[in-house]
Amino acid sequence: MSDAPFYFAQFLTGLASASSLFLVASGLSLIFGVTRIVNFAHGSFYMLGAFTAYSLVNALPSGIFGFWSSVFLSALLVGLIGAMFEFVVLRRIYRAPELFQLVATFALVLIIQDAALWIWGAEDLLGPRAPGLDGAIEIFGERIPEYDLALIVAGPAVLLAVWLFLHRSRWGTLIRAATEDREMAGALGVNQSLLFTAVFFLGSFLAGLGGALQVPREAASLLMDLNVIAEAFVVVVIGGMGSIVGAFLAAVLVAELNAFGILVLPKITIVLAFIVMAVVLIVRPWGLLGKPQAGQHGAGEPEQPLRPLAGLPLVAALIVVAALVLAPAIAGDFMLVLLTDFLVAALFAASLHFIMGPGGMISFGHAVFFGLGAYGAALLVKFAGAGMIVALAVAPLCAAAAGVVVGWFCVRLSGVYLAMLTLAVAQIVWSIAFQWQDVTGGDDGIVGVWPAQWAASKAAYYYVALVLCLGGIWLLHRFTHAPFGYGLRAGRDSSLRAESIGINVHAHQWMAFVIAGGLAGVAGSVFVFSKGSIFPDELAIPRSVDGLIMVLLGGIKMLFGPIAGAAAFTFLEDIVTRLSYWRAIFGGLILLIVLAAPDGVAGGFARLTTRWRGKALQAKP
Amino acid sequence: MTTVMKVSGLSKHFGGVRAVQDVSFELGENQLLALIGPNGAGKTTCFNMLTGQLKSDSGSILMLGKEMTGLKPRQIWRLGVARTFQITETFASMTVSENVQMALMSHEREMFGFWARAKDRYVPDALELLMQVDMADQARRPCAELAYGDLKRLELAVALAHSPRILLMDEPTAGMAPGERKSLMALVAGLVGKGGVSVLFTEHDMDIVFGHAEKVMVLDQGELVAAGTPAEVRANPLVQEIYLGQPARIDQSGDEGAADA
Q1: What is the enclosing helix (H) or strand (E) of A142?
Q2: Which of A603, A371, A561 is nearest to A476 (CA)?
Q3: Separation in Å, CA B16 to CA B9, B24, B58, B258
Q4: Minimal CB count within 10 Å: which of A545, B32, B162, B193?
Q5: Phi, psi angles (nearest 5°) of residue A89
């Protein structure tokens, strides 16, 4: 008696999962291919599909017709919601930097989260089995659910349908043309707005379909969105952004990896997929079947030359610093805690800005460095019995060391692929922190990491945070104005020119990762002593997105943007999280800001002053 | 005349397209050498191999007595070879002066400095270089605001920053107004005349080529088909055929544009 039948059954289960994964990923890939938007909300569309299908199946008369029409109607509904989002929000910000669109989609994630919580509640909802497919078939002595077999057929069927649509219909041809070269398609008279809306409809439809089809297999839950989006990103990147066939191959690969990985290393299946993705990206930086991205033409207005901090801005900065120094004299403990949070957030955002602004590299995983600083400090205290000073000094080095490793991989990629790799790293490190119970405490985290005696009062620790965080920000500012920072900007502006005047662009970018990693680590270690504890959440993807939001709130082209962004974020979060359905409110606020000030809070301010200055200049004779 | 650059047997294929085929030539010291040819002849491919942007399939490139094949662009630059781009490549988020300062800082190996204010480094030297290309009055303007002709001149100033012995210019006057073209090439010719730098350039504008180059090489379908003084090249019947064309040739020129892409 061999294990072959069991492995075969496992293989079939993998294929069934591959089908629904493919549906989500293909939609994501289509949307990215045409609009160049990394749609974080795609997982939310999938979740919506599952929830609406659950409701419709229960509302419509049971039976084969009822079941399949609920699946179809859910997909249709989700498709319409996606199209509406494109029409109402994204359409207004296509000209903004691509990160803005990303943050807008993340705002939608928050809104859909709370909408689903409001409509369907927090309970997991398991739908009925599919009528007519509720049995199981015995294959080689293993019972395989009929529904799984149907899904195995459905995946390739949808692939075929999408492929035929893309290659045989006029719309499909336009979509492929726009994927290849959006500007050229536009120049040839293709109605881009309509095309984008259509692609959003199609992509969201597929996500909704994937979610709806999942109802008989898996309970619809509020965790579905971010769970599936991480996997879908992996699939899309492995397959190649914009390639449907690639998405299918990658979906099968990842799903089988999960199906068999779970037998060998049950705890780290997601890590396995991310490792495969990292390897694929190193070997083929644009995925299995993807094509190297054409360079972006005219990506927004170039940044203004740097000016040294002088005059009015210097006075303003000094006033802010003075206010922060004097704060303990008037602020109560609560306010001091909030200000400490702000300082930590400001250094975190500033370090992220260092690689994103001057470095021009988008990172979705910056919280990794923050978390490693925090965990590093906590572990030093817990296992090595280190004091606060030692922990604060050594932990950032751990984060910087991670910067050495992560940076080495990252500088070999660019654009979205780089962002995806950082996302992968974040997910891997998060999984380790989450599952390595013996060391990190897993979900329970590490508690009891308090400051030294002399820094125990809120005010004393506030000063520790003030010195370290402002010091870190000042260093970043100094580096940005130093030849190194200029070299980094040079590589971003034109790597061709930089290399042809002897600047080693990769070395600059790599070093930037190390610096940014180390200083995010400082922020993390300051954080852990201020809270007394650390949990895996602090290095998860949403935390990284927080950083992105802060940078964008402040305006990526502004040196002091991240600080303004961190301030806005910290205080908004503090106010909003006290309300029920705060995620939706927060998401709405983000959308509002994204729509009103595409260059961020500080950017909007700068625009006003430039306009004012421009008028003053014109007024002179 | 001493030779500063000796290219032999340089070849490059893109799939089935022979972009550059067994090209050999020499650049003499203080020479102004032009490389011309119709669109798709392989000029830019050839150029990108010389500057290290593209790896050659075979052949050797000796510059200043050193083998350059396999070196990265920045290593070639360090050895005293500067270049300008067909479509300008400048640092849009910096001022005109800062663009030049970058090259100066890089030459002094200061790029990994974390403390100095980059803005204040080598300002007088940068200004002097900008003066050479008649851009000193625009030194403090953001580079992003410049007219295209001015960008081309800025590129020349950047290229001259580390006093290169060899200057490679890919269509230095493309996109400039006719008047500007002449003055730019007169400037380059003047530099060569003063001594110290030797220039290889590609060009479409025949007035520029025949007006300034000491020697002209003609590339067609990846191969060097003629070389000589401007007068010789002008009189060459093959060159005339390539440029003026004959009905029979047009049918054969299937791979146009493939190599220059």
Answers
A1: strand A142-145
A2: A561
A3: 19, 21, 16, 11
A4: B193
A5: -105, -60
pLDDT number for residue A57: 87
Q: Tell me which of A223, A245, A268 is where a domain ends.
A: A223
State mean pLDDT over A35-41.
Answer: 84
pLDDT at A603: 65
Give the tens place of pLDDT for each residue, A602-617: 666 666 666 666 655 5
Helix extents (H) in A500-599: 505-531, 541-554, 561-576, 582-596
Domains of chain B: residue spans and CATH: 1-80+164-261 (3.40.50.300), 91-163 (no CATH)
Query: Domain range for residue A206?
Result: 4-223
At A137, give phi and psi (nearest 5°).
Answer: -115, 140
Q: What is the mean pLDDT of residues A449-457?
A: 87
Residue A485 touches partner B, C-beta closer than 8 Å: yes
- Interface check for A181 against chain B (CB to CB < 8 A): the answer is no
Give the per-residue pLDDT at A346.
95
**What b/e readout covers A172-181, taking b as 16+ CB neighbours within 10 angstroms?**
bebbbbbbee
Report the residue of B88, B106, B155 to disrupt the A interface, i.e. the one with the largest count of A CBs within 10 Å: B106
Helices within A215-310 (DSSP H only): 224-239, 244-264, 269-283
Mean pLDDT confidence for B204-225: 88
In this complex, the residue of A304, A483, A489 whose CB is nearest that of residue B113 is A483
Please compute Rg for chain B using Cα positions: 19
Q: Please say whether the beta carbons of A190 and A178 come within 8 A.
A: yes
Give, for B16, the enclosing helix (H) or strand (E): none
* Option in A308, A493, A503 nearest B117 (CB): A308
Both tokens assigned to A234: 């992996």
Query: Chain A: residue nearest B97 by CA?
Result: A305
Q: Is the pLDDT of residue A400 over 60?
A: yes
pLDDT of residue A591: 85
| pLDDT level of residue B137 (50, 70, 90 thresholds) | very high
* DSSP for A358-416, written as a single string: TS----S-THHHHHHHHHHHHHHHHHS---HHHHHHHHHHHHHHHHHHHHHHHTT--HH
Its ipTM equals 0.90
Cα–Cα distance measured from residue A194 to residue A174, given in angstroms and rounded to the nearest whole number: 11
Predicted pLDDT at A80? 95
CB A115 within 8 A of CB A77: no
**Alpha carbon distance B260, B170 (integer Å):** 11
Q: Within a domain: residue A312?
A: no
Domain count, chain A: 2
Q: Say yes or no to pLDDT of A481 above 60.
A: yes
A500 with B83: Cβ contact below 8 A: yes
Gap from B240 CA to chain A (nearest CA, Å): 35
- Asked whether residue A219 carries a pLDDT value surpassing 80, the answer given is yes
- Distance of CA A547 to CAs A175, A521, A552, Å? 33, 14, 9
Does A304 map to a domain?
no
Which residue bears the tokens 């400037």? B187
The shortest C-alpha distance from B231 to chain A (Å) reads 34
- The size of the A-B interface in CB pairs under 8 A is 119
